[in-house]
Amino acid sequence: MTEPAANSADAEPLAADSPEAAAASDDTATLRAEFEKFRDLYLRSQADLDNFRKRAAREREDATRYANSSLLERLLPILDNFELGLDAARQTPGAETIIQGLGMVQKQLQDFLRESGVEPIEAVGTPFDPNLHEAIGQEASADVAEGVVLRQLRRGYKLRDRLIRPATVMVSKGAA
Questions:
Q1: Helix axes 96-115, 69-90, angle to 10 degrees
Q2: Is residue 51, in this structure, part of any structural domain at all?
Q3: Residue 113 has pLDDT above 50, yes or no
Q4: Comparing 174 with 50, which gets the higher pLDDT?
Q5: Whole-angstrom Cα distance, residue 149 to residue 169?
Q6: Which end of the chain has less Cβ packing within 10 Å, N or C?
Q7: Within-domain flag for 5
């Protein structure tokens, strides 16, 4: 009794047109197709992981950059009221020393905001931009072209590249 060859080198080569060769060729094609499918899946998974890492890093950076935005937003109305009080004090005769002291405090507040990345939006004389300005009305003006900010009623602010409060403005509608 002869035993089948255990080593493939000892086995006789398959004839190219034999059913066994056709089956082996089909198995090879199937394995290649599966290999390509899993290779593609692997590459896509690697790309997804890389994108996830980049997005997480970007979100961490944004969280750090804008961590104080809530505090700064709450500080802006206080600054507005402080400036209104300072303007009222300027109308009072004999209050020069108080005005000088309040002016120093105002400068400190403005320096603090600037160092924190807060920038005021300069609106008067610029074209109306709905991304930066909130229009509450229009006024006729022979001196200012249509669509240009005529007056600023409340200052707007940006924190680096993000708007934290739009400027409240009156827009010119041109000559009446």
A1: 160
A2: yes
A3: yes
A4: 50
A5: 6
A6: N
A7: no
Burial profile 40-69: b = 16 or more Cβ within 10 angstroms, e = fewer: eeeeeeeeeeeeeeeeeeeeeeeeeebeeb
Strand positions, DSSP E, the chain:
118-121, 133-139, 149-154, 156-159, 162-165, 167-172
- 135: containing domain: 69-172
- Verify that 75 and 88 share a domain, yes or no: yes
Asked whether residue 149 falls in the same domain as residue 125, the answer is: yes
| Calpha distance 101→98 (Å, rounded) | 5
State residue 128 phi and psi, 5-degree precision. -60, 130
pLDDT(11) > 70: no
DSSP state letter for 164: E
84 shares a domain with 54: no
Please tell me whether residues 61 and 73 are part of one structural domain. Answer: no
Q: What tokens appear for 30 in the block?
A: 């199937």
Report the domain count for the chain: 2
Chain mean pLDDT for the chain: 86
Check pLDDT > 50 for residue 136: yes
